[in-house]
Amino acid sequence: MSREKKPSFTLNTVDDMFTTQEIRDERKLPRIRDIPIKAIKDFPDHPYKVKDDEDMMNLMESIKENGVLTPVTVRKIPGGSYEMISGHRRKRACELLGMPVIRGEVVELDRDEAIIMMCDSNLQRTTILPSEKAFAYKMRLDAMKRQGKRTDLTSATMLRKFGEARDEIGADVGESRETVRKYIRLTELIPEILGLVDEGKIALRPAVEISYFPKDLQEELYDTMEMEACTPSHAQTIRMRRLLADNKLTAESITAIMQEEKPNQKEKIILRDDRTRSLLPKDLPVNKREDYIIKALEHYGRYLKKQRDMDLER
Question: Is the pTM of this model over 0.70?
Answer without folding.
Answer: no
